[in-house]
Each structure stands twice: as C-alpha cells, then as structure tokens.
Amino acid sequence: METVISNLVTRYERGSLSRRELIQGLAVLAAAGTAETASAATPFQANSINHISLQTKDLDGTVKFYQDVFGLPIFNEDRRISTVRLKIGSGRLAIRGVEPSGIVDHIAFGVDSFDKTAATEKLKQLGVTPTDTGEPLGFHVTDPNGYPIQIMPTEAKS
User: Fold this and answer.
1) CA 139 to chain centre
2) Where are the domains of the chain?
3) How many other CB atoms are found less than 10 A from the CB of residue 48?
4) Euclidean distance between CA atoms 8 and 27, whole angstroms
5) Which residues pair with 152 in a beta bridge?
6) Which SS3 state, helix, strand or coil, does residue 24 take?
7) Which residue from 3, 105, 114, 121 lies 20 to 30 Å from 49 (Cα-Cα)?
8) Contact, 84 vs 66, CB < 8 A?
9) Model pLDDT for residues 43-80, shown as the tens digit of each residue
10) 0.85 surpassed by pTM
C-alpha cells in the first residue's frame, strides 16, 4: 500500500493528478485498508438472516397468524419434528411446535465461503465457544445475552 500512496503523491507533485483526485485516491485506499483489517479480525462476514426459529404451543394457530397477518407462504414443513417454515423474502421463519412457547429458539445467520474448521478456530481465538449440534450445515454460538445464534452457509435452505 505504501507504494501506491507514494505513486499517488508523485503524480500529484508532477501535476498529472489534481488535489481532488489525490484525496479521492487516498480515501479509497484508507477504506480498503479498514475493510481488510475488519475482515481479517472476524471469522466470517454474515450477509443474511437465513432463518429465525420460534417456539409455540399452537403450531397451526401460529402458522395461520403469520400467513393471515403477514401473507407468508409455506416454504416447507416437517410434521415429524413439528416444524413449519414460512418464506419471508430470501429468508425463512421456522415455527416449532415445542415447549416452552413464546421464545426465540435461535437466529441463523448465512455466511458466504463458510469453512467450519477455520471459523471454529477464529471463534475460539475471540473467546467464543462454538457448539457443534451435529448438524451438517453449521454450528451454534451464544451471544452475550444468551441468545443462540446458528452460523451456516448462505446457500443452505433449512
């Protein structure tokens, strides 16, 4: 990056680059440097909410509520595990017929270029303990308030 900055300043001093162009170039370099530092410090970049999972004692009534009030169509359902998934934009709302009801079971973030092994190591370096629940799509962590967060590949359709 030092070479690029030096070239910009040299071009400015020779008059082939305006003051405005010099400042714009330096600003772009500064922003790029910040992005590189941020991405190196985090295990991965979450880019979507894959799904939010709610627990309810009345599966059919809750599904009906979200369909009637918000117009959410059924994405898929698995009555074997008392779960109905509704489509909401590019994500889903998973409604699980289990007790206790009225809680957010978990939130799942989608991550591009998901590497479970590398992410696990980086999380441990940050003092965050990932919990492998045996799911092939990802794993869970707990935020400082106790909310379970699932981390999974963006393209996963659970």
Assistant:
1) 13
2) 2-41, 46-153
3) 14
4) 12
5) 110
6) helix
7) 121
8) no
9) 677 778 889 999 999 999 999 999 998 899 999 999 89
10) no
